[in-house]
Amino acid sequence: MIYETVAAVDMGSNSFRLQVGRVVDDQIYELDSLKEPVRLASGLTAGKRLDGAAQERGLAALRLFGERLRGLDQGAVRAVATDTLRVAKNASEFLPLAEAALGFPIEVIAGREEARLIYIGTSHSLPLASHRRLVVDIGGGSTEFIIGKQHDPQLMESLHMGCVSHTLRFFPDRRIDKKRLREAQGAAAKEIELIAHDYQRFGWKEAVGSSGTARAIADILELNGLNPGGESGITRAGLERLCALLVKAGSAEALDLPGVKGDRLPVLPGGVAIMAAVFEALDIEHMTYGDGALRLGVLYDMLGHFHHHDMRDATVTQFRRRYQVDSEQVERVEATALAALAELSGGEPAEADRQTLSWAARLHEIGISVAHNAYHKHGAYILTYADMPGFSRKDQARLAMLVLGHRGKLEKLAGIPASDSIWRLVFCLRLAVLLHRTRDDRVLPVWAVKPHGNGFQLDVPSGWLAGNPWTAAALSEETAIWQQVGRDYTVKAKNTRKGA
What we know:
- The structure is a single chain.
- The protein has 18 helices and 14 strands.
- By secondary structure, the protein is α/β, with parallel strands linked by helices.
- It has three domains: 5-110 and 297-303, ATPase, nucleotide binding domain (Nucleotidyltransferase, domain 5), CATH 3.30.420; 126-290, Nucleotidyltransferase, domain 5, CATH 3.30.420.150; 310-444, Hypothetical protein af1432 (Orthogonal Bundle), CATH 1.10.3210.
- Helix 4 (111-124) crosses helix 10 (294-306) and helix 13 (351-363) crosses helix 16 (422-435).
- The radius of gyration is 26 Å and the shape is elongated.
């Protein structure tokens, strides 16, 4: 379904942001935006748990956003959470409260997925160019580095350092001196050096800063004439002058300069230190500013989904190629699994379930590239921990559960609630894999499936089981496996003339 109005929620480590846009052809025009300086990262304890005060700030912001979003369809809103909720050990406790406050599901996205979306958003806010751009986004808890061309990100990385975390680490009492600033820059440069060689070898023509830190620094340098020759954006010379002024002032709060916004002051030292390190480690002299960022990237990624340019499909195709999947076999399995899902759903399965089952069927054999023995476990491991552009962590977790559950015992999935639709998807995938064990194009019997009790019923033609003892034995074993997790699985031989 294509929506006229779409919205993105960016739950960053420093600020929570909401952007609402109107879709016109292939462009998104901003209708409304909200920003709340939540500083979620400052609420992380030494034990990596999100404290109560930070949680309440986050929930209060989400309640505001929820009021603005009231009335929009679930499919028209996408909310993503970044670094702090990637690392917080109690994120699983906070997220249900956050979803209730917002009124929409929330995805915790991986660092490289964040980088991909940032690049898409930034590139859509800049004039189209034929050259490569380096985009650097200093967030509250992480910094993303992306090289891309036009709207296509090509090299992506996310480093675990941001303006909030870096400020708390090196300027805990907000006092700034030359030694502290030098240590903060050195620590950031050490992290950037891990990726610097690959990025410089790949190359770029234009460096672009995105999000709040880059904008704050650019504003300060421009409004106070700190860039040489009145240049716009961020320059190496301008950064050096700003660092000297911060040391002289002794704190960001004492920096009496136009353009220094109050909500940015508490995290300015860490952001400036990281930016200075970026310029040094990547040998940058000048950086422009791009207004688009993660939230705009989320909106354009949604637009791609609506127009069937779903990045997730491209990722699945790439994984099939990378892990040398038997395309003919997985396509047989996919077709049969989707047919089973359609029957169980009365012909109209939920789109999210249909997509997830389709992707799982296409990827269920990727673990064979590691080893055939327990290949479903290898595949599930890959899907859990690999970078999969377009997929949230929740998406990946469901795919991994399906791949893990498509063969073997089901006790490993016993923690999944009985009401979760993933059980239906597991049934469909297991049935399809079982029916196509011969890995050829022989015609299947005329089968049918339907819900039965707290499980499923499979109908097959009378006499077919007797003529296929191998499959009959596998189905008998399958009914026992489902019974072990308290689910019905009935196989009935029937005379049926339903079309195949």
